[in-house]
Design goal:
Strand order of the largest sheet: 2-1-3-4-5
Shape: globular
Order of helices and strands: EHEHEHEHEHEEEEHEHHEE
Number of strands: 12
Largest sheet: 5 strands, parallel
Helix content: 40-55%
Radius of gyration: 19 Å
Length: about 240
């Protein structure tokens, strides 16, 4: 039996049964809740490793569930919702969700997102993440203590803003960071001008990280939402 415990929060019985059946088939342990109140109770009582959360719950909005859980836990939350508007995605991610899947979804996609989250959990639990002063991802290396970044062994000449952006993305590798979150972290506020500036700085940073047209991609753009640093395998492939 897989040791990962997953809390499924879904009021639509057919979809809930589909998710549960998928988890059972792949030997995951699971809990189920049909509304927000039950979800919060299950999360606080059993401390699941991952939460799969619908936004349209009968007693409260899923975003409120995210906010309540975030007051006491950083457990990964993957939203699964029929709401496909960017505004809904941004609201959920800004509230603290780690990922967002739009219905209808494939079983394969759901399992892939869960595996990515498990890998991120494993890194955190073994203390390999940002507890060390050096971050390595593919051929990218950041020495936090020295304030330097290297690509293929060569130092990257970054502006202060570019370096702050790179560190923020690396400390959240694999996670989508919204425009609002990034601008608040970098500039302490979020306005249309800040978001426009962010796009410019991100473009210049990507040119330095990805100088070859068909080379390794370190930063992925989520149009209308934000950016994510991709974890690169030792063979140079993204995961």
């Amino acid at each position: 039996m897989n040791k990962t415990l997953i809390l499924v929060v879904e009021d639509d019985r057919p979809i809930r049964n589909l998710i549960i059946t998928t988890l059972k088939t792949h030997d995951y342990k699971y809990l189920a809740a049909e509304n927000g109140s039950s979800a919060i109770l299950e999360a606080s009582s059993h401390h699941p490793d991952i939460v799969l959360l619908d936004l349209g719950l009968p007693d409260m909005e899923g975003v409120e569930v995210i906010k309540k859980i975030r007051t006491w836990s950083n457990m990964p939350i993957i939203v699964i919702s029929a709401r496909s508007e960017d505004t809904d995605k941004i609201e959920a991610l800004d509230a603290g969700a780690d990922d967002y899947i739009t219905k209808p979804f494939s079983v394969e996609e759901l399992l892939a997102r869960i595996r990515v989250t498990q890998r991120r959990l494993a890194i955190t639990q073994t203390g390999e993440q940002q507890e060390t002063s050096v971050f390595k991802n593919g051929e990218l290396e950041i020495d936090y203590s020295a304030g330097c970044a290297y690509l293929k062994g060569e130092e990257l000449h970054l502006t202060p803003i570019e370096y702050k952006l790179l560190c923020l993305l690396s400390r959240n590798v694999g996670k989508v960071l919204t425009h609002t979150f990034i601008t608040q972290q970098i500039w302490g506020q979020c306005s249309e001008n800040d978001i426009a500036s962010l796009r410019v700085f991100m473009a210049t940073l990507r040119k330095k990280l990805e100088p070859e047209k068909n080379g390794v991609q370190y930063i992925q753009t989520h149009i209308g939402i934000g950016y994510r640093m991709i974890r690169i395998e030792s063979n140079g492939l993204a995961r």
